[in-house]
Design a protein that fits this description.
The structure holds 2 protein chains of 2 kinds. By secondary structure, chain A is an alpha+beta fold. Chain A folds into 6 domains: 64 residues, Phenylalanyl-tRNA Synthetase, Chain B, domain 1, CATH 3.30.56; 110 residues, Nucleic acid-binding proteins (OB fold (Dihydrolipoamide Acetyltransferase, E2P)); 202 residues, Phenylalanyl-trna Synthetase, Chain B, domain 3 (Phenylalanyl-tRNA Synthetase, Chain B, domain 3, 3-Layer(bba) Sandwich); 68 residues, Phenylalanyl-tRNA Synthetase, Chain B, domain 1 (2-Layer Sandwich), CATH 3.30.56.10; 227 residues, Bira Bifunctional Protein, Domain 2 (BirA Bifunctional Protein, domain 2), CATH 3.30.930.10; 102 residues, 2-Layer Sandwich (Alpha-Beta Plaits), CATH 3.30.70.380. Chain A has 22 helices and 43 strands.
Chain lengths: 840, 346
């Protein structure tokens, strides 16, 4: 709400410093969004009168205006279309400062010829003055404006942009804001005057019959008939006030109504009395199929249940939102019915949304206007109109249909109770005057206060509200700072969050970057991961489908019903498309170490319940594992870098004994069929990992030779099995015997099977086995590969001899031969394949 | 010693020859070859001595003494030379191993923390040290928990404070972490001291200061005798821990439907300290978080007696904390995941 200080000053004495005023308002709970000073750089702007106009030869666009300004006659060339002889306008002489150029900066006016004529002055638009965006013509001042005066004297002002909080509808008015200023500066409010000027005729006749169908929707309807109206322009004091508050001046009747609404916060509406059919008004909800053409000229289908104002025949206004065109005040209007009514805020809010029509009136009704205001607003309207109408008015007796509305209940509070909430003593001696300044009535007996809130403060309902009034008036800076007493034992981090932190730290530790990407995405974005035809098979994208079903969920996306855009329409069921977008974005400027992970939730629908939110880890790798440098050769990330990262997470969760990475059991459309795997925990699916399918990579604009790799892990499954392994072993006391063997196998034998057999045969004496080379080619035979393994034998009870180790090795080789068709390749030369180290 | 004897001459000649060769040897291998040549079992000195048997008996001790003396001399010379050569070889090796120490060090991979998540973790840690329990809630919520149980009934004008994204009539993406307040109070009895970190969503146009998705940390304390002063003290402690004790903050009255009294906390601009400058849009203070005393209605909805219990709640965005700490002016940098920006948070 725009509150010009020039207007507020009608009701309250303002402090000298604007900064001080604004600070006091902010610190007592009135949010001042902005402070606009009208009149910046106006030092050289004066009022001038146009005394003659002519067109320069050869132009039908420009005018040469002769103007009178402080006794001098000057000339100005202007392109403004709205100039007329006799107008009073703002002007700046050559050499003076024009407040705003097209970029909003002040500049010094230079003599500049237009069509061969050089003027002495420039006429200014509202835009050049910084008042509004209107730059179509010069600003025309009211005719009675004195000529040759500094404009600053006439129009300079400061406008506060006040954003009342939702609980303070009273601050949607000048009086309401002035009341806060009065309380904050400990001064008094001057109430608006409702007395009628001499000569106004008062009739005993009732204004109009009123029928309210449901008083819960219209708590009060006050109607006032006024005759003798002459519609015409408003005087400058009124139009200037409205314009300063951001409301366009229309005519004296409309302006008086807007003035009252801005002043008191009560919306009013003036009907042309003679255009109301049947000389009666009613308030009812609309029936199906009703229509009304509103003041803005739009023919509207009125949704059923909308609160309407009717005359004897049908709808004449949408209650509390906008009047109808049929009963609109026009230049010929001679009699008015002024409506000052109170409508239910929920009803107005619903209708305003249903119609897509929000007005100054509806905004106030939605927040709640006190029913006590209607009569005051009607009386103030007629007082204003009577003072500006060219003829004496005839005012009829007020028709006031008052329904039932809840009374304002008084609050019983003790200073102790308020003090207990605030944590500071609040003696009655300071509480009572504070509340009284805000309009509360307080009765005190035996240390208990009975507090009656004023009618405009229906938001104050209990002791907590009283505590806020007291605290904000004293200033929150007067509240001490303490800490709650420590009588709650500290709680450990919930296991899932602790594991999340552990995963985050292990991945950060090995050089990954954590990302923060959008939960909301679009179908198109996700479908890039899928083969498009025939229709997206969402289950192909999902990790651990069985786990999803166990949670009662299905794999299709969760969709919004009011999506802001197509790209933000569903909740993602995978992190991978977001991560790949991050990869693609960064690939535009680097190929080094694109290693990302994100820990967040993926969403899957559940019938009749909130969606299943799965804790998910997404990983993406692309480009080179090493930054290019003089001592490092760039090598691209490969599947085993990805698997190693996944395994680091598995180990950190204490799961390496239960986990395995195996061939896919079903095709995953976004993964390379030969370089993809699933992660199993105790035989159950927990993740997918692999090279991104080249076709899919292209859809993400990841072009060859760059390859991307992705993994997605179902952390709910991983964390359910996770545990901290506390069984720590001593370092071995006896030396180990290390032996390397190379064994060739049919090419399709998985290394995992080889390792299983080696471990089974090696038994207790085999401390570790590590693959140190994989070779296929000459010397191994077609369709075969050779695996070289470093075996480490060790006993817990004695120093192992070469012979003992060799015996175990022979057993291993025989088993590999028997089970997997393995062949020991040659015999390792003595002294090269057998090394001895102590305590390694 | 003068020995008039052909054998003695030969020994002396061998000595001269050997000393010459030793002095000229340039490698340890050369020296070893000389040791074998002169002192080895078939070496020249040994060979010379083998002729001693033919000498008259009275000459033998003299020649023997001479031979021993020459042998010791050669051994000593060999050793000296060996040491010198060893030192020389090491010196040369070290010389060849010289590197240009001004070349850059190896760029070890280091993790890159996301500044928002980092801010969230720091705040969570600060509150855990103050004895707060961490809980989580669902990101998709029932309207009832997101609004109604927080004293915001349907069609309440305060609903305009949160533009919501709905999944159905009664289900939405939570607009704040506050629903977890209602959930925890329903399932537990006071005393409560919890924080709730998590993602929240609002249907806002995305610009420098707003995003559809953001992180929030909710705090809730309910017990007997909790006061507004406790809230102030707690949030002062947070800001002192996060920004350092010099950064000024201020409390001012505000409005939230689920708290009464309510307070907004502003932090002084990182650049001007509240004196107003261009970087803070001449405001001097920037909104940091909303807070207040838990509204008696919210306590009642949970079955707590407001006459017995009171509490405070606050909700803050790690994004605001982070931009205030790092003086960043555009929230969008957090969503871009551009390594050129993130790298600074290694
Ligand atoms: Zn600043």
């Amino acid at each position: 709400m725009k509150a010009p200080l020039s207007w507020l000053a009608d009701y309250v004495d303002l402090p000298g410093s604007i900064d001080d005023l604004v600070l006091r308002l902010i610190m007592s709970g009135t949010e001042v969004e902005d402070v606009v000073r009208v009149g910046e750089h106006w030092q050289d702007v004066r009022t001038a009168r146009i005394i003659a106009l002519e067109r320069p030869p050869g132009s039908n666009r420009l005018h040469v205006a002769t103007i009178e300004m402080a006794g001098e006659t000057l000339c100005s060339v202007t392109a403004a279309p709205n100039v007329e002889v006799g107008q009073t306008v703002p002007a700046v002489r050559v050499g003076g400062v024009v407040p705003r150029d097209a970029k909003g900066r002040p500049f010094v006016l230079q003599p500049r010829p237009m069509m061969g004529i050089t003027g002495d002055a420039m006429l200014l638009s509202a835009d050049e003055l910084g008042i509004s965006e209107d730059h179509d013509g010069i600003l025309v001042l009211p005719p009675e404006t004195p000529v040759g005066r500094p404009l600053l004297e006439i129009m300079g002002d400061t406008i506060l942009d006040v954003q009342p909080t939702a609980n303070r509808p009273d601050e949607m008015s000048m009086v309401g804001i002035a009341r806060e200023i009065a309380a904050a500066t400990e001064t008094f409010l001057r109430e608006p005057d409702t007395s009628l000027p001499a000569g106004t005729r008062v009739s005993d006749e009732s204004s109009i019959p009123i029928t309210v169908e449901d008083s819960t929707l219209c708590a009060r309807y006050t109607g006032l008939r006024i005759e003798g109206v002459r519609v015409g322009p408003s005087p400058s004091w009124l139009s200037r006030k409205l314009e300063a508050a951001g409301v366009r001046s229309i005519n004296n009747v409309v302006d008086a109504g807007n003035f009252v609404m801005l002043e008191l916060g009560q919306p009013v509406h003036a009907f042309d009395y003679h255009r109301l059919r049947g000389a009666a008004v009613g308030v009812r909800v609309s029936r199906a199929g009703e229509r009304l053409t509103t003041l803005d000229g739009v023919d509207r289908a009125v949704p059923e249940g909308t609160l309407l104002i009717t005359d004897g025949e049908g709808p004449v206004a949408i209650a509390g939102i906008m009047g109808g065109a049929g009963s609109e005040v026009s230049d010929d209007t001679r009699a008015l019915l002024l409506e000052s009514a109170n409508f239910d805020r929920v009803s107005i809010r619903r209708s305003s949304r249903a119609l897509g029509l929000r007005t100054e009136a509806s905004a106030r009704f939605e927040r709640g206007v006190p029913p006590e205001l209607t009569e005051l607003a009607a009386r103030r309207f007629v007082a204003i109109l009577a003072s500006i109408n060219p003829e004496p008015l005839t005012v009829f007796a007020l028709s006031d249909e008052v329904g039932r509305f809840p009374p304002i209940s008084s609050i019983t509070a003790t200073p102790e109770a308020v003090g207990r909430l605030l944590g500071v003593e609040t003696p009655a001696g300071t509480m009572v005057p504070t509340l009284e300044r805000l309009g509360f009535e307080v009765q005190s007996s035996d240390g208990t206060l009975t507090i009656h809130p004023p009618f405009w403060r229906r938001d104050v309902e209990g002791v907590a509200d009283i505590a806020e009034e007291v605290a904000r008036s004293r200033g929150y800076d007067q509240i001490p700072e303490t800490l709650p007493a420590q009588d709650i034992p500290p709680a450990p981090l919930p296991p899932d969050l602790a594991w999340e932190d552990a995963i985050r730290d292990i991945l950060l530790g090995i050089g990954f970057a954590e990302t923060w990407t959008d939960t909301l995405t679009g179908r198109d974005a996700l479908e890039r991961l899928l083969t498009a035809s025939p229709s997206p098979a969402w289950e192909q994208m999902v990790v651990n489908l069985a786990g999803l079903h166990q949670h009662g969920a299905t794999p299709e996306p969760v969709a919004l019903i009011n999506a802001p855009t197509r790209e933000r329409a569903i909740l993602r069921g995978t992190l991978l498309s977001s991560l790949l977008d991050v990869v693609a974005g960064n690939l535009k400027h680097t190929r080094e170490r694109l290693a990302f992970f994100e820990l967040s939730r993926t969403f899957f629908p559940r019938a009749g319940d909130l969606p299943y939110e799965r804790r998910t880890l997404g990983i993406a790798l692309a480009g080179d594992r090493e930054a290019r440098a003089w001592n490092r050769r760039p090598e691209p990330y490969d599947f085993f870098d990805l698997k190693g990262a996944v395994w680091a997470v598995v180990e950190r969760l204490g799961l390496s004994g239960m986990a395995s990475v195996e061939q896919l059991d079903r095709p995953i459309p976004f993964l390379h069929p030969g370089r993809a795997a699933r992660l199993l925990i105790n035989g159950a699916d927990a993740g997918l990992l692999g090279d991104l399918h080249p076709t899919v990579a292209e859809r993400f604009e990841i072009e060859p030779p760059t390859r991307a790799l992705v993994a997605e892990l179902d952390l709910d499954t991983l964390m359910a099995a996770a545990h901290r392994d506390l069984s720590i072993r001593q370092a071995p006391r006896f030396p180990s015997v290390k032996r390397d063997i190379s064994v060739s196998f049919p090419a399709d034998v998985p290394a995992h099977r080889v390792e299983e057999i080696v471990r089974a045969e090696g038994g207790e004496l085999l401390r570790s086995v590590r693959f140190v080379d994989v070779y296929a080619g000459p010397g191994v035979g077609p369709d075969r590969k050779s695996l070289s393994m470093a075996l480490d034998f060790q006993s817990k009870t004695q120093t192992l001899t070469q012979e003992q180790a060799a015996a175990v090795q022979d057993r291993i080789v025989r088993a590999l031969q028997r089970e997997l068709g393995g062949t020991l390749r040659g015999s390792p030369p003595a002294g090269s394949a057998v090394r001895e180290e102590a305590n390694s | 010693m003068t020995v008039e004897s052909p054998l003695a001459d030969r020994i002396e000649a061998t000595r001269t020859q050997a000393l010459d060769a030793i002095a000229q040897a340039s490698t340890l291998d050369d020296l070893e070859a000389l040791r074998i040549r002169f002192l080895g079992r078939k070496g020249e000195l040994t060979t010379a001595l083998s002729a001693m048997g033919k000498l008259p008996a009275e000459e033998r001790p003299r020649i023997g003494a001479l031979a021993n003396e020459v042998k010791r001399d050669l051994e000593r010379r060999l050793e000296e030379r060996e040491q010198a050569l060893g030192e020389e070889a090491l010196r040369r090796r070290l010389e060849t191993e010289r590197v240009d120490v001004t070349l850059p060090g190896t760029d070890w991979p280091r993790g890159i923390r996301h500044p928002l998540i980092q801010a969230l973790r720091e705040v969570v840690d600060i509150f855990r040290r103050m004895g707060y329990e961490v809980i989580e809630g669902p990101e998709v919520e029932w309207d009832e928990y997101n609004f109604t149980k927080l004293n915001i009934p349907p069609h309440h004008p305060a609903r305009d404070m949160w533009e919501s994204l709905y999944l159905s009539e009664d289900m939405l993406l939570r607009t704040h972490t506050s629903p977890a307040q209602a959930r925890i109070m329903e399932s537990r009895q006071p005393p409560l001291r919890v924080i709730v970190p998590g993602r929240c969503y609002r249907n806002e146009a995305e610009d420098a200061t707003h995003g559809i998705q953001f992180l929030q940390i909710e705090g809730l304390v309910v017990d007997r005798g909790i006061t507004l002063a406790d809230l102030k003290g707690t949030l002062h402690a947070l800001c002192a821990a996060y920004f350092g004790p010099q950064r000024k903050i201020r409390f001012r009255p505000s409005y939230f439907p689920f708290t009464e009294p309510s307070a907004e906390v502003d932090v002084a601009c990182a650049v001007c300290g509240g004196a107003r400058c261009r970087s803070c849009g001449f405001k001097g203070w920037l909104e940091l978080l909303g807070s207040g005393m838990v509204h008696p209605n919210v306590l009642r909805f949970a079955g707590y007696d407001p006459e017995v219990y009171s509490g405070f709640a606050f909700g803050m965005g790690p994004d605001r904390l982070a931009i205030q700490r790092y003086a960043i002016d555009d929230l969008r940098v957090f969503r871009e995941n551009d390594l050129r920006f993130l790298e600074q948070f290694r």
